[in-house]
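sanity check this chain:
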Amino acid sequence: EEWPLADKPGELTPNQTLKAPVAIHSLSIPAVESEPLKRASKGKGEKIPEQVLLEGTRLHRLLELVDWTKKDASWIRNPKDRVLMEKTLALPLFEKTSEAKAFQEYSFVDEETGVNGTIDLFLLYQDHIDLVDYKTRSIDDPAYGEQLAIYEAYLKKVFNLPVKKYLLSIKESRLKVVD
């Protein structure tokens, strides 16, 4: 059996295939009592309308699918979303992404601190890291700075490079530098 791959997100092409795994192995792992992991991201606070959540999820997903080397948004079918992504990709921070290795939806567990999280995007350059956290609109909540500080500490520990932190307002195609 073969699985089709896509040239672009959302498209399947018949001439690109991937062999399905031949065998599935099971593994039994004994239960271990441990402290629950602490989340790096802001906790659940105010109730957010479902429509706002769905829009944020959709826009976040579009950025997950972006090829940060090519910065091409032509594959996005909705014209309004395409224009929004094009404006975002044109921000000065993303001018040299072809020189970086992009890590998207990077999940981690810091065993020393007991913290886990998922970093929306970080761009690994030879001399630094650009850390970007996506928000649908508002980027002014002080709790976001705390979240980025946790991500920064982890990235510094792993890569031993300086980290520049940014919040991205997707709806406004606007970046905020976080100190």
Observations:
- DSSP finds three helices and eight strands in the chain.
- The longest strand covers residues 101-110.
- Strands lie at 2-4, 17-19, 38-39, 101-110, 115-124, 129-135, 163-169, 174-178.
- The two ends are 51 Å apart (CA to CA).
